[in-house]
Specification:
Layout (H helix, E strand, L loop, with lengths): L2 H16 L1 H14 L5 E7 L5 E7 L17 H4 L4 H7 L6 H7 L3 E3 L9 H10 L7 E3 L1 H4 L7 H14 L2 H17 L6
Parallel strand pairs: 3-4
Antiparallel strand pairs: 1-2
Helix pairs in contact: 1-5, 6-8
């Protein structure tokens, strides 16, 4: 087991324990605020373009088209009553700790693309970024998050590929905490 995998497993396991009550409250709020399941299992692209199911607390109505949020004509129309809050606070991301425990994701890496984001997948494959385990957060996340167009996101992902280290991961984790507290970079 690599040091990064050991770090990911240990931190996500501890986070599961520490965040159990907020996760239960969030799950209850999702269930009570709109019909449908508590979790949304999204088909995502993992390491070496392997497709895996990534869980999130459901923030969108059950009849929402399966496309990236920015591709919807009016994303706010599709949000559940608490969806916007869950996204701004990043509480919707907490179930991804499960994906980190199973090894489908890392704490830090490029965000996993949707299975149908062919342009992003092709560009990441061309640059070798597809060889990285996708992350809960990453260099692109702390440098723009939802606001980044794909070519810019790709530049940040490529930077991470070439400069990744334990210290860079620690820096990204701390910057992520600051961004989440400030709700920076979330459009929908």
């Amino acid at each position: 087991m690599s040091l990064k995998r050991l770090f990911d497993f240990t931190c996500s396991f501890m986070a599961f324990i520490l965040l159990a009550i907020p996760m239960l409250i969030t799950a209850l709020a999702v269930k009570l605020s709109s019909p449908g399941s508590i979790l949304y299992w999204s088909d995502r692209v993992g390491r070496n373009n392997y497709i895996f199911k990534m869980p999130k607390f459901r923030t969108m109505r059950t009849d929402t088209p399966a496309v990236a949020t920015h591709l919807l004509d009016n994303p706010d129309y599709w949000l559940t009553p608490i969806g916007k809050f869950l996204r701004k606070s990043s509480l919707d991301e907490l179930p991804q700790l499960f994906s980190i425990l199973t090894g489908d994701m890392s704490i830090v890496g490029p965000r996993p693309a949707l299975f149908n984001q062919d342009d992003l997948i092709a560009l990441r494959t061309e640059k070798g970024i597809h060889q990285l385990t996708p992350g809960l957060t990453g260099w692109a996340q702390i440098n723009g998050r939802d606001e980044l167009p794909i070519p810019v996101k790709l530049l940040f992902d490529e930077y991470y590929l070439k400069h990744r280290s334990f210290m860079l991961d620690v820096q990204i984790i701390f910057m992520t905490i600051i961004k989440v507290v400030k709700s920076e970079g979330v459009d929908h």
